Amino acid sequence: MTPKTAIITGAAQGIGRSIALRLATKGFQIGIADLEQQRGKAGEVINEIKKIYATDSLSAKGPLLPPVFYPVDVSDKSSVVEMVDAIASKFDNHLDVMINNAGIASISKLLDCTPEQLDKVMKINVGGVLNGIQAASKVFVKYNRNGSYEPYENGNKIVGKIINCCSIAGNEAFPILPLYSASKFAVKSLTQSAAKELAPLGITCNAYAPGIVLTKMWDHIDEEMHKVNGLPIGENLKKSIESIALKRGETPEDISGLVAFLAGDESDYITGQNISVDGGICYN
Ligand code: NAD
C-alpha cells in the first residue's frame, strides 16, 4: 500500500514539530513547511523523523521517502501554492493530509491595537489557513481525483484531509489577545465553510483547539503581557495554568495524538469540527 503523505506548516518547532514526529511514527511521509529562517531547526526535525523511520516496526512495513523541508511564508498565496506542489511532487505526486498549523500571537489591549497588528495576524493566521486550504484542495483534486471536480454522490470516498490550527481563543475571546482571538474565530469559520464546500469532492476539514501550550509562543505571550499588565515574568503563564481543570500546562504531545487521529482513516466521518485539547478550560 502507498504510504500516506502529509504537509505540516510551522513544523520546525513547537506543536507542528510534535505533529510531524507523531505522524512519522504512524508511517506518514512528511513535508515540513516553515519560514526560511527555520531551516536549521527543520533539519533537526528531519533527522528525528529519519531515526523514527529506521525503527524496526516502521522499516518492516516498506520504504518511506525521506522527509523534506520547503521554505514558505504561509501569508503569501503563491509561495504556499508553490510549496504544496513541490512537496507533492517530491513524494511522487502524493498528498493526503494538509495541516495548517503555522500561526503567530498578537498581544495588545483592544483599545491599543494598531492597523499593522491587525493586518499581520490576519494575513498569517487567517490568510495562511485559507492559502493552505486552497492549495491542498487543488492538489487533492489533481492527483487523487484525476483532476475532476464532479461531486461524489455520497461521502464515502475521502480523497484528502485538511486540519487547521484553531485555539481556545477561537471558542472564547481573551482580553489582551483580541486580534489573536478574532483570527482564531475566523479559522473556525473557515474550517466550517471548507467542510461544507469541499465535502462533495471527498475532502474533510477539521480543526484542533489547543489551550495553554508550553512552547516558544507562550514565552512570547507571557513577556508581552508583562509589558501590558505589569505582572512579573512568568506570572501570566502561571495564572493561565491555574485556570486549567487538569492543573498543568499543555505539551505539544498532548495535541499531536488528536491530530494523528484526524489525519487517519478512523476519523473519515468527522468534518467541520473544532476539537478542543485544553485540559479543561473551554466548555462548548
Ligand atoms: P511556535 O511559535 O513555537 O511555532 C510556530 C511555528 O510557525 C514556527 O516554527 C514559526 O516559524 C512558524 N511560522 C510563523 N509564522 C509563519 C509564517 N508566516 N509562515 C510559515 N511559518 C510560520 O508556536 P506553537 O505554540 O507551536 O503554535 C503553533 C500553532 O498553535 C499556532 O497556530 C498557534 O496559534 C496555535 N496555538 C498555540 C497555543 C499555545 O499555547 N502555544 C495555543 C493555541 C493555539
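^ nicotinamide-adenine-dinucleotide complex. The pocket of nicotinamide-adenine-dinucleotide is lined by residues 9-10, 12-16, 34-35, 38, 72-75, 101-104, 124, 165, 167, 210, 212-213, 215-218 (CB under 6 Å). DSSP finds nine helices and seven strands in the chain.
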